[in-house]
Amino acid sequence: MALRMWASSTANALKLSSSVSKSHLSPAFSISRCFSSVLEGLKYANSHEWVKHEGSVATIGITDHAQGHLGEVVFVELPEPNSSVTKEKNFGAVESVKATSEILSPISGEVIEINTKLTESPGLINSSPYEEGWMIKVKPSSPAELEALMGPKEYTKFCEDEDAAH
């Protein structure tokens, strides 16, 4: 009880919204998504996917901002290896306790690997969106598509502007 009272008073002092989870009776905080992690060395799409380009392989996942909006991820649908993905087209879905959301590919190319760990542990998207929670690895077909994506500073500003509009 003391922890809940402290959390509530701290949230009020910091002007954060707080609520009590009915299932666990522990504090849950909603902090503006502009505090989400944005990593250097990655490129970002305005649909909240990230790309890490290394050599001839691009690793793709959803951002910390996106997973924060989704809530607890309970199921992930990914494409088959050797299939194609197209920029700004659906390549899979993420189901959370709140909703099911399509995942759009930030680039076009051939899927060379999928993260099979997500089948058994979809929550990796929540706990480690940029590392263990990656979704697919793609052989990009158009380098220009990578260059058109946002860098970390641009993406942070995009998220701040998007959150301010809501």
Secondary-structure map:
Layout lengths: L1 H12 L3 E4 L6 E4 L12 E2 L4 E6 L2 E6 L1 H7 L2 E5 L6 E2 L4 E7 L3 E5 L4 E6 L2 H4 L3 H4 L8 E5 L2 H5 L4 H14 L1
Antiparallel strand pairs: 1-2, 3-4, 4-5, 5-11, 6-8, 7-10, 8-9, 10-11
How confident overall, as mean pLDDT?
82
Our count of domains comes out at 1
Helix/strand-derived category reads: alpha+beta
Number of helices: 6
At CATH's second level, what is the architecture?
Beta Barrel
Shape: globular
Can you tell me the CATH superfamily? RNA polymerase II/Efflux pump adaptor protein, barrel-sandwich hybrid domain
CA radius of gyration is 17 Å
Work out the helicity level: 25-40%
Largest beta sheet, briefly? 6 strands, antiparallel
User: CATH class, anyone?
Assistant: Mainly Beta
Oligomer: single chain
Strand order of the largest sheet: 3-4-5-11-10-7
CATH topology description: OB fold (Dihydrolipoamide Acetyltransferase, E2P)
Organism: Capsella rubella
Function: The glycine decarboxylase (GDC) or glycine cleavage system catalyzes the degradation of glycine. The H protein shuttles the methylamine group of glycine from the P protein to the T protein.
Subcellular location: Mitochondrion
Family: Belongs to the GcvH family.
Provide a quick synopsis of the model.
The protein is an alpha+beta fold. The protein has six helices and eleven strands.
Question: Would you give an account of this structure?
Answer:
With 166 residues, the protein is of the alpha+beta class. The chain has one domain: RNA polymerase II/Efflux pump adaptor protein, barrel-sandwich hybrid domain (OB fold (Dihydrolipoamide Acetyltransferase, E2P)), CATH 2.40.50.100. 28% of the residues lie in helices and 31% in strands. The protein is built from six helices and eleven strands. The strands form three sheets. It has a six-stranded antiparallel beta sheet. The protein is globular and about 35 Å long. 28% of the residues are buried. Residues 1-34 have low confidence and may be disordered.
